[in-house]
């Protein structure tokens, strides 16, 4: 007969079972979900919504410009041109990749915001008609 291992604080139950038992809602899966709830979402500012892609675009543009400067230095300087010729295109490609990823991310967020607004509208309609 196996004896279940005790938790570090000496109690019989594991920390996971304590969390499940003491959960006020009983649905820890929904609480740990990264997606926002339709019912508890508060209006967010544009900066809260778009700050990540804006940061990615600005960092990508800065790295791209740095790569352009490094690449142009390889044409004007005569010493250590191999270092500039190797690192310049690498920074150019990395910056361009971040720039494009950020620019593609913005329309994706806009589409998700529209879907979320439609979903909230449909949820309110459902609750109006079915909770009478």
Automatic annotation (TrEMBL):
UniProt-annotated stretches for the region Disordered: 1-31
Gene Ontology MF terms: phosphatidylinositol bisphosphate binding; transmembrane transporter binding
Classification via InterPro entries: PIRT
Chief subcellular location: membrane
Key word Metal-binding present: no
Name of a matching Pfam family: PIRT
This protein's UniProt keywords: Membrane, Transmembrane, Transmembrane helix
Record flagged with keyword Transmembrane: yes
Membrane topology note: Multi-pass membrane protein
Ranges annotated as spanning the membrane: 54-78, 90-109
Biased composition (Polar residues): 17-31
GO cellular component, one term: plasma membrane
Subcellular location(s) per record: Membrane
Name of protein: PIRT protein
């Amino acid at each position: 007969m196996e004896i279940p291992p005790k938790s570090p604080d000496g109690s019989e139950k594991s920390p996971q079972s304590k969390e499940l038992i003491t959960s006020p809602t009983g649905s820890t899966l929904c609480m740990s979900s990264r997606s926002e709830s339709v019912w508890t979402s508060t209006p967010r500012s544009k900066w809260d919504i778009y700050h990540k892609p804006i940061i990615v675009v600005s960092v990508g543009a800065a790295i791209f410009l740095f790569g352009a400067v490094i690449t142009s230095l390889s044409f004007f300087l005569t010493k250590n041109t191999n270092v500039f010729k190797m690192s310049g295109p690498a920074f150019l490609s990395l910056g361009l990749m971040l720039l494009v990823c950020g620019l593609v991310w913005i329309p994706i967020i806009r589409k998700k915001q529209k879907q979320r607004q439609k979903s909230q509208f449909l949820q309110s309609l459902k609750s109006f008609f079915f909770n009478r």
